[in-house]
Amino acid sequence: MSKKVRVEHLTKIFGRRTQQALEQVKAGKSKQEILKETGATVGVHDVSFDVNEGEVFVIMGLSGSGKSTLVRMINRLIEPTSGSVYIDDEDVAKMSKEDLREVRRTKANMVFQNFGLFPQRTILQNTEYGLEVRGVSKEERRKKAEAALDNSGLLSVKDQYPNQLSGGMQQRVGLARALANDPEVLLMDEAFSALDPLIRRDMQDDLMDLQERVQKTIIFITHDLNEALRIGDRIALMRDGEVMQIGTGEEILTHPANDFVREFTEDIDRSKVLTAENIMEPALTINAEADGPNVALQRMRKEEISMLLAVDRKRYLKGSLTAENALDARKNEKPLEDVLDKNVQKVEKDTLVTDIFNIIQNSAAPLAVVDEEDRVVGVVVRGSVIGAMTDTDTGQADEKETAEGNTDETTESADKEEVNANA
């Protein structure tokens, strides 16, 4: 996957004694120490990261964390004190004003929190504006603007004015205007923060749907962790101008880099972020095409279980096999295929835990977890789901899973005894 944007050791210091403050930054002094000694404020401190082409990369943090300063340095709305920003291997920080203007017009467009629409222009005219500034012909810019509005579901209101639209629709226009320029990178600074919660969620859905169609590289700024987890492929979490951790939502929740990240994420509902892949266990299987009931019973006895998943040679799911059915197959000399339960429920490995709960609560058996090609990669048991939904501490989740497992063992003890006696 190619790197679309590279940020290397980016630093921004506000104030007069920037050189002295920069030296102190390099010496490892804190933001507070530098402010006290120089009067200068460190907005961003030695930040580095890459953004992949087509990725939604979220930069998040509380007010004053430096996230908005950081995104504005990417297109040099704010001049960096030191460091580099590369878009397609071109250093934005060293560009001439003319080259920078061209980058802002064609490569990296920005969507702001306050929409930035012209009240005297129609929705179509607002959407055409960036193309108009670039000198695109009237016919061509109208065609591109209408296509962008159509993509955003706004073509029917193209002749209306901003004050005739709701806040959510105005923000859609702002997004459509940016997309009309067909930018390679879209910078979104708290783009949905001014919207009501329900409208904000709709805009998040719209952005994700739009991204599926247009596949832009998006750098999205937010202070809302739930929003970051919902739309971001990866997240950079900032504090006091520094990046605390970069990773997927799952990585940040399951492996916080430090106490700050752990505390920041402790109230998040993990069931809406963690997936089957995070909580699954190795699948104990039998090859239904090659193995017989004796092999199945022996494996059950060794593993002290009373059920196996049956797969073919390529690990495609064929069904489940209980100890009772394996004993029946051996007694009556039946092939395993004849005694399999074909109604095994399965989930894809990226299925959210909250969705798995609705499935597994009505299932007596574990769920099979399959990959993109529908091959078995693991199983999910009820205890793992309950642990993921109720605990923020891994150790507690493990204890609950063990307790749940002991309960399952009790209900299956009769089957185990029969297997051990007859296998």
Automatic annotation (TrEMBL):
<dbReference type="InterPro" id="IPR017871">
    <property type="entry name" value="ABC_transporter-like_CS"/>
</dbReference>
<keyword id="KW-0547">Nucleotide-binding</keyword>
<dbReference type="GO" id="GO:0005886">
    <property type="term" value="C:plasma membrane"/>
</dbReference>
<keyword id="KW-0067">ATP-binding</keyword>
<dbReference type="InterPro" id="IPR027417">
    <property type="entry name" value="P-loop_NTPase"/>
</dbReference>
<keyword id="KW-0472">Membrane</keyword>
<dbReference type="GO" id="GO:0031460">
    <property type="term" value="P:glycine betaine transport"/>
</dbReference>
<comment type="subunit">
    <text>The complex is probably composed of two ATP-binding proteins, two transmembrane proteins and a solute-binding protein.</text>
</comment>
<dbReference type="GO" id="GO:0006970">
    <property type="term" value="P:response to osmotic stress"/>
</dbReference>
<dbReference type="GO" id="GO:0006865">
    <property type="term" value="P:amino acid transport"/>
</dbReference>
<dbReference type="InterPro" id="IPR046342">
    <property type="entry name" value="CBS_dom_sf"/>
</dbReference>
<keyword id="KW-0029">Amino-acid transport</keyword>
<keyword id="KW-1003">Cell membrane</keyword>
<keyword id="KW-0813">Transport</keyword>
<dbReference type="InterPro" id="IPR000644">
    <property type="entry name" value="CBS_dom"/>
</dbReference>
<dbReference type="InterPro" id="IPR003593">
    <property type="entry name" value="AAA+_ATPase"/>
</dbReference>
<protein>
    <recommendedName>
        <fullName>Quaternary amine transport ATP-binding protein</fullName>
        <ecNumber>7.6.2.9</ecNumber>
    </recommendedName>
</protein>
<dbReference type="Pfam" id="PF00005">
    <property type="entry name" value="ABC_tran"/>
</dbReference>
<feature type="region of interest" description="Disordered">
    <location>
        <begin position="390"/>
        <end position="423"/>
    </location>
</feature>
<dbReference type="InterPro" id="IPR003439">
    <property type="entry name" value="ABC_transporter-like_ATP-bd"/>
</dbReference>
<dbReference type="GO" id="GO:0005524">
    <property type="term" value="F:ATP binding"/>
</dbReference>
<keyword id="KW-0129">CBS domain</keyword>
<feature type="domain" description="ABC transporter">
    <location>
        <begin position="5"/>
        <end position="265"/>
    </location>
</feature>
<dbReference type="InterPro" id="IPR051921">
    <property type="entry name" value="ABC_osmolyte_uptake_ATP-bind"/>
</dbReference>
<dbReference type="InterPro" id="IPR005892">
    <property type="entry name" value="Gly-betaine_transp_ATP-bd"/>
</dbReference>
<dbReference type="GO" id="GO:0016887">
    <property type="term" value="F:ATP hydrolysis activity"/>
</dbReference>
<feature type="compositionally biased region" description="Basic and acidic residues">
    <location>
        <begin position="413"/>
        <end position="423"/>
    </location>
</feature>
<dbReference type="Pfam" id="PF00571">
    <property type="entry name" value="CBS"/>
</dbReference>
<keyword id="KW-0997">Cell inner membrane</keyword>
<comment type="similarity">
    <text>Belongs to the ABC transporter superfamily.</text>
</comment>
<dbReference type="GO" id="GO:0015418">
    <property type="term" value="F:ABC-type quaternary ammonium compound transporting activity"/>
</dbReference>
